[in-house]
Amino acid sequence: MNRKNVLLASLLAASSFVVQSAQAAPNWIGTADYTAGSPEGDEDVVGPFSTYDFGTGVVLLETTSVVGNVSTLNGYFQSFVTNHELNSVLVLAANLNTTYELTVVANFSQTTTQIDPNTASTVIQNGGSFTIYRDTYPDRDYTTDSGFTNGEVIMSGTVTGGGGVAATFGSAIFGANDITVQVTSFDAAVFDPDTIATADGIFTLRLGNSADASFLSDVPSVLGNTADAGDYKFAADGYATLAVPEAETYAMMLVGLGLVGFMVRRRTRLLA
Known about the structure:
Structural class: alpha+beta
Number of helices: 4
Distance between the termini: 75 Å
Radius of gyration: 21 Å
Helix content: 10-25%
Oligomer: single chain
Shape: globular
Number of strands: 15
Number of domains: 1
Largest sheet: 10 strands, antiparallel
C-alpha cells in the first residue's frame, strides 16, 4: 500500500465511518428501470443493486467566514454514475454513459476546524440538497459546467449531516467525508420496491494531486459557482448506498396505519 493510500485509510478510520455504517439502516436492494417514461427506451433495467458508484467529480468549497481556527464554507458537487453495485460486486448496466447518463449534484454547508497545521476536521450541516438526474443523452461537460442538471429528476433529498477529516500530504491535501441524505422523493416508476428512505455516501477529496491537475484546471465553475481566492476546488470520488426506513420508522408507519384502520372501522360502526 502506498503512502497516499495509507493516509486515506487513516482518515477513514479517524472519521469513524465503520461505526457509522454499522449503525445505519438496512440497505435498500432493488431494481431501477431507466426505460420508464423514456421516449427512446434504449436505457437499461438494472438490478438488483444497492449502491451508486460515482466517477471522478468536482467539489467546490466557497469560504464564507473564518473565525479563529473555524471556517464556514458552502459546498457544491457534481459527478455522474459509473456503476451499480450489490455487495461490492458490479451489476451490469450495458448502455450507461452510452445511450443515457445518470448525473448527481449536491449543495451543502460545512464548518471546518483546523486541528493543527496539517490536519482539519469537517462537520456537514443539515439543510443542503442532493439530486440524481436521468438524461436520455449523455452530454455532461465539466469544461462548460453544463449537462449535469438536465433530464428528469429520478431521486432527490435533503442533506442531513456528515463529516470527515483532511490532511496535508506534501503539497497536496487529501480528505475523506461521509454524507447522509434523507431521500424526500424518487420516481416509483423507476425504482422497485418503493421503500428508499436514505442514502449514505463516502467521498475522498484531492487537491494539489498532480494526477488531477489537468482535470481541475479545465473546470471553470461548479453548478454556476466559480472558485475565488480562499476557495477550494477538489477532485472527488465516492459512492452512495441507498437504505430503507429503520425498524422504528416501520413501526411508526404500522401504528399510523393501524390508527387509520381503527378510525375507519369506528366511523363505519357509528354510521351503521
